[in-house]
Amino acid sequence: MQSTRRCSFPLGSWLIRITLLIGVLSSLPATVLAQMDQGTITGTVLDNTGAAVPGAAVSLTSVDTGLTLNATTDGSGGYTFSPVKIGNYKLSAKAAGFSIAVQDNVHLSIQQRLEVNLQLKPGTATQTVEVTTAPPLLQTQSGSTGQVVDAATINATPLNGRNWVFIAQLTAGVAPANGARGQGKGDFNANGQRAEQNNFILDGVDNNTNAVDFLNGASFSVRPPPDALAEFKVQTGSYSAEFGHSAGAVVNASIKSGTNQIHGDLWEYWRNDILDARDYFATSVPKYRQNQFGATLGFPIIKDKLFFFGDVEANRILFAAPSVTTTVPTPLMRQGNFSELLNTNLTGSAQPVQLYQPNSANPATPLACNGQNNVFCPNQIRHTGP
């Protein structure tokens, strides 16, 4: 006998629960969103007397992609855009009875909380007051210690193997990881911690090698070419709680993105032995040829909507290896017959090679079996294996 139980719930109660859940999720503040590779632009809109202007319309426009974000100031005249992708922006504010205020040259870096205050002056909506000087770079709303390395610095710094991770060793509180497995790939110690305690992030994604043996020779997984990076930031202390991976430094890198303008570059770094000097005691210059080449390209697929950016790099190394001659046993030798060593035409030696019985000394007994020199008898040979 088989019984079946069915439970029924009123459809209305489920709709109410789903509606309440959506309402709770939508009411959560935007500041809880992770913004590992992004930042925040905040500030206050004031009038010419220094009083706050509530209800002012504030617009943030990306200079590179044309993306526009809108916000309204609160009762204290404050506004916040978060999270915001790093890049160059233009900020504007307007309110009834005031002219439009525009702030140009706003650059947002990784994990930066940039404060930009706007001042409205009495006037009409057709009048615009534009400020072209960049806003102050002092960041007073975050206690993290670190340094941002921009694209210009990355490309201008001489790098062994074009590995930009070595630049992180120039920041405060950081030292080369002498003796670490990833020393040759740029791994470093921060604040006395092991190199394995650093947290590498690429475009907000975990970029750490969890394998103990470091299969790629370093504690990070992916290393884009320097030309593909917009910037990276090394944080060594008091960083945000969203970085909970380890106790060392946080290396937060961001790759460039496509814009409304076609942009890119080509490169090749070339090394050849024809440019090398010969060592004083050497008879020739060892062959060594290296070609490291690549390219980046970014362009709009749909203007102001969809963009593409890609990069590629390869490294080809050619060097001369010393000549090595290796001999293998002949079919007779595999049977215990080494008589071929007595034939100088086969060995190329001036004298025949005489073998001696194992463990014989004072005097040594020549190896022979049934009068045949350099031959093991069958009872002297033990076969091992299958």
What does this structure look like?
With 386 residues, the protein is mostly beta strands. The protein folds into four domains: 105 residues, Immunoglobulin-like, CATH 2.60.40; 110 residues, Beta Complex (Ferric Hydroxamate Uptake Protein, Chain A, domain 1); 57 residues, no CATH class; 48 residues, no CATH class. Helices cover 7% and strands 33% of the residues. The chain has three helices and 21 strands. A five-stranded mixed beta sheet has the order 3-2-5-6-9, with no helix packed on it. A hairpin with a 2-residue loop joins β20 and β21. The N terminus is likely disordered.
* Rg calculated over all Cα atoms: 36 Å
Number of domains: 4
Distance between the termini: 62 Å
Q: Using the 3D structure, state the CATH architecture of the largest domain.
A: Beta Complex
| CATH homologous superfamily placement of the largest domain | TonB-dependent receptor, plug domain
Helix tally equals: 3
Specify the overall morphology.
elongated
Strand content: 25-35%
